[in-house]
Amino acid sequence: MITTIDEEQGIVIVRNGEHEERHSLATAEGFEAASRAWVRATWDSKYVYSFAWMGRPVIQLPEDMIRLQEVIWALQPDVLIETGVAHGGSLIFYASLFEAMNKGRVIGIDIEIREHNRAAIEAHAMKKRIELLEGSSTAPEIVDQVKAMVKPGETVLVVLDSNHSKGHVLDELRAYSPLVSVGSYIVATDGIMEQVKGGPRSEDDWDWNNPKAAAHAFVAEDSRFVIEEPAFPFNEGVVTKRVTYWPDAFIKRIA
Ligand SMILES: C[S@@+](CC[C@H](N)C(=O)[O-])C[C@H]1O[C@@H](n2cnc3c(N)ncnc32)[C@H](O)[C@@H]1O
Q1: 243, 61 in Cβ contact below 8 A?
Q2: Ligand 1 atom closest to Cα of 112?
Q3: How far is the CA of 193 from the centre of ligand 1 (A)?
Q4: Domains observed in the chain
C-alpha cells in the first residue's frame, strides 16, 4: 500500500495495486488513511518507547491509554488484572486512576520482574493499589493465585500485554475470561503486529500469529464474548474509529 499525504491540497492518496483512492483529510476516511501511515511510523521509529507515567516507562500508544481510561471511568472496576508488567508504567497508570477514583486495585503478572523494575514499583506512591505476581501468566499456579485474589461480585477488567503469540494470548483468554464481569472486557492488546509486518523488528508470521487472531479465535469458541470497541464517550468530530495498537482488542462479556 502506498500512502501519499498532500498537505497543500489537504488530501491523502492511497494506492493499492491498480486501485487508487483520494480522500480529504477532513473526512473519516482521510484521517484513517493518514493515521494508518502514522501508526506504522510510530512502530518503525520506536516512538511508543518514549513515554512515562508518573516516572515509569509505559510502552503504549498514548491514545490507547486514554481510551482505556474512558472505559475504566465508565466501568468503575474493583480490580484490573494486567499480564505483562515490564517497567510498570501501565500498572502505575491504572493505579493512579484508581487512586483518583478512590477505589480499585491492580494485579500485575510478569514472567520476569527485573530487580530494578520491582524496586521502582515497590517504592512508588501508587504501589498501595498494586499487587505483583511473578511467573508465566498461563501457569496454572499463577492463574489460581489471581483467582484467589478476586472476591465474588467484584467488577473485573483484564488487559493482556505479555507474550503476544496467538497461542499464548488464546491460552490467556481461556484462563482469565471466567474472571471478567458481564459488561466488562478482556483486552487483547497489540494486534497492530498484523499491520506492521515487514517493518523493523517484525516477524514473517505476524500476519496470523498475533493477539487479534487470538481474539477472533476466542469469540468463535465462546459465545459469552464478542469483539466490541467501546464507543467514544465524547465526540464532536467526524472520526469514529480509534487510532490504535489494539485493533479488535476489546472483547466484551455479554453473558
Ligand atoms: C510489552 S511488555 C509489557 C508492557 C507494559 N504492559 C506497559 O504497558 O508498559 C511485555 C512483558 O510481558 C512479559 N512476558 C512475556 N511472556 C510472558 C508470560 N508468558 N507471562 C507473563 N509475562 C510475560 C515480558 O517479560 C515483558 O515484561
Answers
A1: yes
A2: 25
A3: 15
A4: 2-44 (no CATH), 53-253 (3.40.50.150)
pLDDT digits (tens, 9 = 90+) for 105-151: 999 999 999 999 999 999 999 999 999 999 999 999 999 999 999 99
Alpha carbon of 60 to ligand 1 centroid (Å)? 12
pTM: 0.98
Contact (Cβ atoms closer than 8 angstroms) between residue 11 and residue 24: yes
- Exposed, middle or buried by CB within 10 Å (0-12, 13-18, 19+), for 173? buried
Using CA atoms, how far apart are residues 71 and 145, in angstroms rounded to an integer?
26
Distance separating alpha carbons of residues 160 and 162, to the nearest angstrom: 6
CA distances from 230 to 12, 47, 73, 96, 163 (A): 27, 25, 12, 22, 24
Residue 115 pLDDT = 98
Pair 39, 245: CB distance under 8 Å:
yes
Ligand 1 contact, 165 CB (< 6 A): no
Say if ligand 1 is within 6 A of residue 163 CB: yes
Distance 165 CA to ligand 1 centre (A): 12
Q: Which residue has the CA at smallest separation from atom 18 of ligand 1?
A: 136
85 Cβ inside 6 Å of ligand 1: yes
pLDDT digits (tens, 9 = 90+) for 79-118: 999 999 999 999 999 999 999 999 999 999 999 999 999 9
